## 1
Amino acid sequence: MQYDWTTFVLEIINFLVLVWLLKHFLYRPVMGAIARRQAAVEQSIAEAQTREREARALKTQYENRLVSWEAEKQKAGAALQAELEAEHGRRVYALDAEIQTERARRQALAEHQEEERRRAAEEEAVVQGGRFVARLLARLASPEIDARLADLFIEDLQRLPEAQRQALRTALTEDSGPAIRVMSAFPLAEERQGAIRRALAELAGRDIPCAFAVDGSLLAGIQASLGSWVLSADLRDELRFFTEVAPHGSD
């Protein structure tokens, strides 16, 4: 086989031309397309990585926010529970205070009603006792008891304090009445009337006429009207005093 150098050179030239043509018209566009494709892929990868980082950051932010919300929820729940317990305690305390107040009010009302019943019973007992004593004294009243009460009346006149004696003397001096009216449940003996006159004269500091009369409503005893003063030692007034004062004395 013989080689033709001209043909060989031409083949080399053709090959070089082909390489140049391929390089300029095929390789460069392909490499440019590959480069652009690679750049696009790298940009997509970079964008994906950026989105991934943003997504992770957003996930972390959401997780932190969820943790914060959970902490706030627990804190709010604890505060609400504490407030509910405090409100429950306040209501229980208020209810207990109201119950205690109502119990005290009812107890006071019951005690007041019991006191009223006791007082009414005592007053009724005093009234009944007064009526019984009045009936008994009315049956026991006699000239002897009347005379004894007259003696007590004289003794009481003699024992009056000096201040009362002076007040009675002043009242008798200012009073222009003609006489002292002396009432008794039974007629008095002359000597007892004389003793009463002497006691009244000693009390007044001068002789004063006395008018004696009988008043059966006195039951027994003496009642003397000295001007605006009334001196008595009789069962009727003593019994009235007992029935009127005794209920008040028990307060």
## 2
Amino acid sequence: MGARDEDASARRWRITDLARSAGVSTQQIRNYAEDGLLPAVARTDSGYRVFTARHADALVMLREMIDGHGWGHAPAIVRAVHRGDLETALDALDHSHAELSREREHVRMVLGAFETVVAKRPDTKPIPRGNLRIGEVSTVVGVRTSALRFWERRGLLRPSREAGTGYRVFSDEERRMAHVVALLRRGGYPFPVVESVLGELRSTGNPERVRHELAARQRELHRRSVRRLRASSALYQYLDQYAALPGGPAPAGAE
């Protein structure tokens, strides 16, 4: 690091300048410092906080991390960085990326399951219409009554109750849903995916609209991935400047 760089890094920042650089209030800067979201802040003999270029860089990194990883993950990662606990920070970072990967895989599976439902068209065979009791639905769908009861307990099916007898009765809509559940379970789809497919079918009922909604979710996941990539890049740049990374050179200014 040259003399001018050393002078710049040692220059004190007023809290108002730091807040203005990030577009936040001075109180927000104080909150970040107290919550461990900025490096430790020294104080003058008179009690004023002393901010430096490192705090300005940390603030840039923090804002990128919040935008990319959200408040659910970013604070834990950033606090660990400022504690010098790189292992915990990287572990939390991996969890954040893995969470997004799971979401992406779930949407992909839901889309595949939905296409399976559309391709199979379980309603193509003529079957009885109107309200059916559970035994009749069991025969029509080709599953045991115990399976239908289990799916009901999971919230997948919503049969009504027959007045007077209390027997379960399945409307045409619920019978179609039972067909869908049976089809997807035979295809090996897990219950969370089945639940998502049923939710889409119940809310829209229009295959093209379901496809559109799922495609929109995939695009949003892509945008979130890009934001996380940008945030992770900002984190790396900060660590490269101020922390010793395994296998890398010592941070600038280190002995």
## 3
Amino acid sequence: MISFLEGTIEHFGDKYVILNTGLPGQGGIGYRVIVSPKVLNILAKTNSDVNGGKVKLFIHSQLNMREGTFDMYGFPDKDDLELFHLITSVNGIGPKSAMGILSVIEPKHLKAAVINEDADYLKRVSGLGPKTASRLILELKNKVDHLDIGDLKGIDLGQEGQAIEALLALGYSQYQAKDALKESKGKTLEERVREALRLLGKR
């Protein structure tokens, strides 16, 4: 089983990268690794200006019997990978669904939602159905405490969910909304949405 891969990015796809693990100028093997949009952006920056473009991804690998493929999912650190494993341990949530959840919810917000049993936030932000959201909370509530994925102090999931809903209503995607709100410096709901719209207008 592959635990991690380290190398340079040969190609950026829509939802994946091709990672070359060989030495520069000596060829190598290219691995197709599925990543979230957030990680894709991080890798695009890393590939151009850090360590000569060398990156390291922790890997979850799985045989996809339905499509006849051997899929690899990549994460920049071990805690993100462990959170992915916890999500896929929930009955009814597979790797693709788990990656979709992590694409639109910050790990610390997911942890806060589980600890606070905030199923409404999970439904609004990730698009999970009510039964799946409740099941995720029930099965993970006693498993996420030890994860070191950010300070939960001051997180307002209610405001976060409302801000995302406002941007979705204006036609933006889940990922665009989350990405803009992460950079928004406003304190009130209106200020955050207004600042997010300004940022989105520049892209």
